[in-house]
Design brief:
Helix 3 runs antiparallel to helix 4. The protein has one domain. Helix content is 80%, strand content 0%. With 113 residues, it is mainly alpha-helical.
Length: 113
């Protein structure tokens, strides 16, 4: 789960930052500096969340972040679609991630033997 979920959150952090840049120019924010700083903050939260993916509550935290990313569609309407795509990717990463990690571990052990 670690590899797939980390990948989703990492790429998503870039997209969310770009979303705030678009929101700064489309009139969603009165101050462009505020939008940029919120984008940087959101990007930092997503990147920091990569570290908690392996915790028991990591999948729930990531799911909450996915809801927030989809809700960014109220600032930039295209984020409803992009956020939805990332939510689907997150679902598959959580669902299949443990299996991928187990296969990688088994492969590494087989290479050592």
């Amino acid at each position: 789960m670690r590899v797939l979920c980390s990948s989703v959150l990492g790429i998503e952090s870039i997209v969310v930052f770009l979303c705030f840049l678009v929101a700064s120019t489309n009139g969603s924010f009165e101050s462009q500096a505020l939008a940029v700083w919120l984008g940087v903050g959101a990007m930092i939260v997503l990147i920091a969340s990569i570290g908690v993916v392996t915790r028991p509550w990591g999948a729930w935290w990531g799911s909450i972040l996915q809801v927030i990313v989809v809700a960014l569609g109220f600032l930039v309407p295209m984020m409803f679609i992009v956020g939805g795509i990332f939510a689907v990717l997150w679902y598959f990463a959580v669902r299949n991630g443990s299996r991928v990690d187990a296969l990688r571990k088994a492969y590494a052990e087989a290479q050592e033997s």
